[in-house]
Design a protein that fits this description.
With 449 residues, the chain is of the alpha/beta class. The protein is 41% helix and 16% strand. It contains 18 helices and 15 strands. Helix 10 packs across helix 15, helix 16 runs parallel beside helix 17 and helix 17 packs parallel to helix 18. Bound molecules: 5-hydroxymethyl-3,4-dihydroxypiperidine.
Amino acid sequence: MAEHSFPPDFLFGAATAAYQIEGAVGEDGRGDSIWDVFCRQPGRIKDDQDATVACDHYRRWREDLALMRELGLTAYRFSISWPRILPDGEGTVNEAGLAHYEQFVDALLEAGITPYPTLCHWDLPQALESRYGGWRSKEVSRRFADYAGLVVGRLSDRVTTWATLNEIDNMTRRAYHRGASAPGLTLSRQVGAQTTHNAVLAHGLGVLAARAAAKRPVAMGLVEDPEVFWPVWESDEHVAATWMAYEASWFNRAKLLPIIEGRYRDEHLAAEGADAPEFTDDEMRIIGTPLDWLGLNCYRGQPVRAVPGGLGFNTMPIPAFDTGVTQISFTPLALYWMLRWVHRLAPELPLAITENGLGCSEGITTDGEVLDVNRKEVLRLNLECCARALAEHIPLRGYFAWSLLDNFEWGSGYSVRFGLVRVNYATQQRTVKLSGNYYREVIRARRVL
Ligand code: IFM
């Protein structure tokens, strides 16, 4: 394969999430999610914005599909809104919700775009928060499995590749301990660990339920955003220190490691002490259910160096470049070293980069162009990381840019833009940015340009 090129079956995609783009929060029988309720609380979201309209994608999806075709995408990662399918979180199925995703998936397939749905990207039905305490309860882990079985059972005749959850920490520790994500609670550290365990368990239960309900074989995976480290330079000692940093990370020890290894490492439980989650051996077996693929999100990583004698590591400041307005982290090797680490842990597991991109504020020129050169550079450097990983035979199946569209960036509201395509929120007009044009050319050439 030529340098920096991609094999013919490599998927070039873009990603979004239901709550961030769909809008139409009260339409066609959708119930409230915890994010709807969180957004209504003054001071939670920048400028008290919300996602009631967002990109209006629920109604404009045909236009957005045309944009995907224009960019030449071969895959699209999106999420299914749990409260659209089960407005009460469980029980009565909202057929209109299911019909929406069936229609959307059919249109993707007709356009030759492989669907990569995620079953829950943070938007837990509010009914489950009110009734059970959300991710504090293992009841909700079981409700997730029911929901996963329902949706995969319905759509598996046309969708093969599924992710259960997206970035567990944002739904659990950040939501119930740090108060920064819905439902915005600041409970104990133990609750942070327990909610994390309960969501990891939901993932395992969801995989089993989905496989049992599927009409034909499905590829079940998860999307995680490990804490990422990279060697300050690529000498053996700094690389060895980098592996130590990955495996000392709470973030990695609490989620990805148990999912891959089917157990919490002894050193993790010892360090957690009374804050460790309650769990059973049976739950750990479920959590360790072998995956068919793993999605990895990466936005940045921390440089690491070895301490003299090779017995430990130091993390170092993240380099940044100055755009004149803001500082942007500059970690072009992070994505490559994240792939290396996960591949080292699970050499046979097919991987995909399910999110990667740059969030910033940006303007539009008088000619109506968006010259997002920083995002285009971030894209180029990260695609080079993918090409390097492929050249080293890491089973990387695809790359999904975050995001197809500018969208509702959670607590930051609409102030941060990530899209390859700009959205004018007043008119809902879409404009392909420089980064989108660049990505289209890369996809056409199948090599990093
Ligand atoms: O917008 C989010 C997405 O929902 C999850 N991953 C990170 C993105 C950028 O912050």
